[in-house]
Amino acid sequence: MKKLLSLLTILGLSTSSSAMVISCGNNASEEKDDTAAKRDLNDLQVKDLGDVNGSADLATKITIDDLINAINNKNEGWTLTKSDVVLVGDPTNNSAKLEASSSSKNYKGSVEVKFNFRLSFNVSILEDVINNTGLGAVARPNTYNVGYLMVPSYKSEDIMSSIKRFVVPLLDMAKMLGTTISYEQILDVANIVFLDSEDNVFENPNESNQVDHIKITAKNGKENNIAGIHIKGEAIIKIKTQKPVNEIVKVTELGDIEISNKNDDYMTKIAILNAFYNKNSIIDDNLKKQFEVTSYADTEATINTVINSDYASNDIKVKYTFKEEVNSYTKWDLSKMSKNDDSTFQPTIKITSENIDNTLYTEIFNSITDTKNQFKSYWEDEYLYDQEGNMSFIFDNQEKVETEYYILNKGKLSSKDFINKFDTIFDVIIDKTQKTIKVSVKSGQEKFDKDFAVYGEIIFKYTV
C-alpha cells in the first residue's frame, strides 16, 4: 500500500481526491500506520546533553531553541524543530521534559533530558556599558564621558582599577537576575590586552605608554570555569586619562556647616557638598555633579569623584563642624529655575499687557509656581523637603504629584496671600525693546514666611 501511495505522489495524484478513492482497509488502521511511522522521542540515544549555553545574553532560563539545538547536536540524524515539540512544565537548570506536538509529522511520544544550563555572559556588555548602549546602558551609573573608560593614568593597575568601578555594578545587576559572579572570577577567566592606536600590545603599561584601547575576551579553555556561567564574546574599550583632583580641590577644612536636621541623610550630604564647593570655588554645575559624599560623621566626611568623572578617583577627607539652624527654613532660588539637568533655557511667559499691576503679578506667579511645564524639573528635582522632612511643594496651587518613585505633596501656603504682597517681595522690570521681564527679590524681603525664603532673580522672554 505504501508503495502505491508513493507512486501516486510521484505522479502528482492526490490520494484524498474525491475523483479517486483507493481502499486500503479501515481508517483506524491508516492512523495506526501513520503513528508507527513517527519517531519516538524517547528513542533519543543521548539524553544527557551536558553543558548547554544560553543563546541570549544573561538569560536565566533555558529556552526551547537551546534544547532543540543541543538535542540535534548530540544525536546524529535527529532534526527536531520548534514545530515538532513543546515543553511540559517549566524547565530547571538541569532537566526538562519535551513531548511531541500534535501537529508534528515526524515525532511522537515524550522524553526527559538532562543538562547543565549555563547563563551566557558576553563580555561585549562591558563595551556597551562604556558606550551607553543596549543592555549595558541599564548598568551605567551616569553619562559622563560616554565612549571612554576614564583612567587616572596609563599604568596597568590604574586602568584595572577603573575597569573594576564599572564591572562591579554590572555584576550586581547580574546578581539581581539570580546569578552571582565575583570580580575576581571575571579576572580569572578574562583575557585583557592593552593596545596603542595601531594595535601594538603593551604587556604591562606604565605612565609613559599611551594606551589607546583595551581588548577583553574569554581565556581559551576557561569559558566554563565559573559554575553555571559561560563566558564569551569580545569588548573593545577606548581609554582616556583623567585630571588629578588636587588641581581643583585645595581646601578640606570646611568650617561651620548649617543643617536643619542631622537625621536627614540626603540634605546633610547636600550641605557638606555645598560647603565643599564654596570653599574650593567650584561653581560649574556640571563639575558639581561629579562629586559625591561616600561617608560622613559628626566632624568629618569622605568625598570622592563619581565613576568616569573628568577627575581621578581619590578619597578626599574633609573636616567641619555641624551647626544646627535655629530658625531653619526652605530656600526657593529663582536663579536655579532656568536650569534643566546640565543646560540652561530661556523661560517664556505670555502676559495680558505690559502694565505692571496685579494682573501681571498673578501671571508671573502662576508661571513660576507651575510644576508641570517649563519649571517641572526645578520643582520636582531641585526642591524637595518641607520642614517636617516630607517632600512637598510650597503653595496651595501646586497640586500633589505622585510617581512610582516619589510623592510630592500639595503646598500649604496661600497663593492668593502671596500674590497680594508680590510687589513688596519682588522688583519687576519690563524691557519693552528686548521683550524681557526681570523678576528679582528685594533686599531684606527674602523671608516671606517663617518656613520659607526666596532668593535670586529670573528673566522671562514675553509675548503679549
Automatic annotation (TrEMBL):
Domain of life where this protein originates: Bacteria
Signal peptide positions on this chain: 1-19
Entry keyword set: Signal
Protein known as: Lipoprotein
Organism: Spiroplasma corruscae
